Records
---
Amino acid sequence: MGQTRRNKKYLALDVGFKRIGVATSLSGIIASPSGIIERKTNRETFSEIERLIKKYGITTVIIGLPLTSNGKKTKMAEKIEKFAEKLKSYLENKKLNIEIVFQDEYLTTATAENLETLKKRNRKDDIAAALILEEFLSNRSTF
């Protein structure tokens, strides 16, 4: 029998050109904004993601995929898919068998920017990652 959602630990990534918003769910129920990764080289970025995976015992990485309102891939979505392929290869080379799943992130960054509690613009990326993770968790039905 596979792991249930409560046994899994999730890391969500809201991938942008300059920054990656990060959120975690260590219970499989609640998503928490967990910071920002400043993008540098892929190697440095992947190393930071690897560090978080090991730190939190992550089993699944959820990556936000920007689709249009009618579900079609954007150019950024294609870039993110390539990023995810490279990340998966990097993790496999590090002997980490981590599931990578895509989650539609339509409007999550805009929603994060509009939350009244966000006075600082630099918090939108990890809030967007938490919204991506919450959407993913709400679509899962197994406990």
Note: The beta strands are 10-15, 19-25, 32-38, 60-65, 99-104.
---
Amino acid sequence: MKNKIGIYVVSLLDSSRRINIINQFEKLNINFEFVDAVNGRLLPQAIVDSVNNKDVQSRYRRKIGLGEIGCALSHQKIYQAIAESSVDYAIIFEDDIQLSDNISAVIEYFKSTAVSLGDKNLYILGGQEGLSSQDLLVRSVKEQINVSNDVSFVKLNDSAKYIYRTCSYVVSRDLAKELKCTYDEAFYIADDWNYLSTLGVFKKLYLTNVAYHPEDLVGSVIEQERQAKQSSWKRSKLRALLRTCKSKFRQLKRFY
């Protein structure tokens, strides 16, 4: 029996990006549905204040931006819909993603081969372009999932801290329920995969590259908020040198 797949695209109702994503999916002959994103800038101040409570500010060491709050609420909206649906797997995109033809092979894998029951793994489809954390990812040399001749998921070892964005990923219905339950207990930023990994919400983390995020981030509210809050230390030459040493050391973890 084949798995039932849901494909969702998070997008503001009036976003001009919708035309581009529609064209991409039509070209690939893939059906999907839009999920209207929550616009953080339109949220009542009471909700913003409730998110930015002492515990949240202590965990993130800053206030959460309006774009990040809207993004978090948008993805929770999807998790709730998945939990209430009959889908076995959900493939989630944001509307600024660029799809490769190989996305079809990934969809077929989750439809025909993957076992959804009890699957608490997180599958990232790409979208890591332009992030300085790329050199700190540790790709296992022992474990991968072959999807097709051209596509495979590689297991990431001890790397949840260095994966960002929620622009393209796959979750089972079981995992979507866990993500929603965790949020109901305490707010978390949508792409705080490290927090979720630490709590044991998902088991293994896999990465492939069949979807791409634009490196020109001028139009990204979330990226602008995060860059504005970067310290001078994060931009220093000394830190860059230390990161290079750290990256080389971390690669020893490839072998487990």
Note: The radius of gyration is 18 Å.
---
Amino acid sequence: MSLESWQKLPLSENVHLIIYGGEKDNVGYNYNFAKSFGIPQIKNGYWFFSDRHNKSTSPEKDVDLFERRSFNFTLAIYDIDTNTLYYFELDT
């Protein structure tokens, strides 16, 4: 995980949908992993994403996140205001 891999918040749309839930193109995404794992809405910080799925063609991007039947990814979110790192791995 190199420093260049971290991005300034906000999260990308796909990562936001998988972590916090929401709607896109009239489809509801009710995963809301943030609630289950105590990850608050963070406004000031950085994030890192790695798609570890064996069919991923671009591990640093989330473009194929909803194109498969399973999720294998790592997400880290650093909250500058509270100096807290949230680290999340999902393998289904």
Note: Residues 3-91 form one domain.
